[in-house]
Amino acid sequence: MPELPEVETVANGVNDRVRGQRIESVWLSSKPQTFKTPAAEMEQDLAGCRIIQVRRVGKHIVFDLENGDARSGVLLQWIVHLGMTGRLLVCSPEVPLPAHTHAVLGLSSGRELRFVDPRRFGRLAIFRMENESVEPSHQSTAQGFQGPGQEPLSIALADFQKLFRGRHLPIKSALLNQKLLHGVGNIYADESLFRAGIRPKRIAGRLRKAELERLHVSIQTVLREAIKLGGSSVSDYVDADGVRGFFQLQHRVYMRTGQPCLVCGTPIRKIVLGGRSTHYCPHCQR
Ligand SMILES: [Zn+2]
């Protein structure tokens, strides 16, 4: 499942390719579970809109849209969640439509934006923001769809520490709780805890201030590193119709069960926490 860095990479790649384009035609499949907004309504909302920008919010990809009549006081956003296997592709209409295509937007550039999702855990929705005081051209990224939880890449240390206060659950489980921080999944939780030297089982509310400081830094470092790595491989999954996996961060603990820790040589241990496999070094993480 794509995590925050992959979603950010896809959002940036799509933004580079479709920003400023007008949506000239809309085709949606008849698979109802894909659409959180009824397909007929979505089709009507999207047609004719101009794509102002595409960006990541949590693990969602948000298209900020401008419709022909911005004076109506409502701005639209198209919200795409990739689920397990969802992909956004930008290609020429001549490229044959892959199986499991659920949305095709014809763009003013002559290219198509396609949403393809074999497993159908992905979701498409329209978000309306009432917009009485702000001109569309002044939209800031703070507006509109926010999703649950705080943004791990920009949360201040004090707010980060507050998130875990009084929480009687393992820190690993707290990191995966999307209502606290959004977008941190299993891989990056394990990798961040390793770099911060914290055992996944430690109770979140009992971590010391210095430990939370280290964790705050390590989460942001790990995510930024992954985004940087992903940026170079974006064409593999946005352009054309190839099916390529996401890049992999140089994992230090994740899926390295039994292999020597890269720091101290102790075999990496695997446990199950809250139903999720969890990897850590019993020597480096306390
Ligand atoms: Zn170690």
Automatic annotation (TrEMBL):
Summarize where DNA binds, as residue positions. H100, R119, R167
Indicate the family of this protein: Belongs to the FPG family.
Obligatory cofactor(s): Zn(2+)
In the UniProt record, does the keyword DNA damage occur? yes
Q: Which InterPro entries match?
A: DNA_glyclase_Znf_dom_DNA_BS, FPG_cat, FPG_Glyclase, FPG_N, H2TH_FPG, Ribosomal_uS13-like_H2TH, Znf_DNA_glyclase/AP_lyase, Znf_FPG/IleRS
Instruction: Enumerate the catalysed reactions.
Output: Hydrolysis of DNA containing ring-opened 7-methylguanine residues, releasing 2,6-diamino-4-hydroxy-5-(N-methyl)formamidopyrimidine; 2'-deoxyribonucleotide-(2'-deoxyribose 5'-phosphate)-2'-deoxyribonucleotide-DNA = a 3'-end 2'-deoxyribonucleotide-(2,3-dehydro-2,3-deoxyribose 5'-phosphate)-DNA + a 5'-end 5'-phospho-2'-deoxyribonucleoside-DNA + H(+)
Gene name of the record: mutM
Q: What does this protein do?
A: Involved in base excision repair of DNA damaged by oxidation or by mutagenic agents. Acts as DNA glycosylase that recognizes and removes damaged bases. Has a preference for oxidized purines, such as 7,8-dihydro-8-oxoguanine (8-oxoG). Has AP (apurinic/apyrimidinic) lyase activity and introduces nicks in the DNA strand. Cleaves the DNA backbone by beta-delta elimination to generate a single-strand break at the site of the removed base with both 3'- and 5'-phosphates.
The cross-references to NCBIfam families, in alphabetical order and at most eight, read: fpg (TIGR00577), PRK01103.1 (NF002211), PRK14810.1 (NF011385)
Protein name, entry field: Formamidopyrimidine-DNA glycosylase
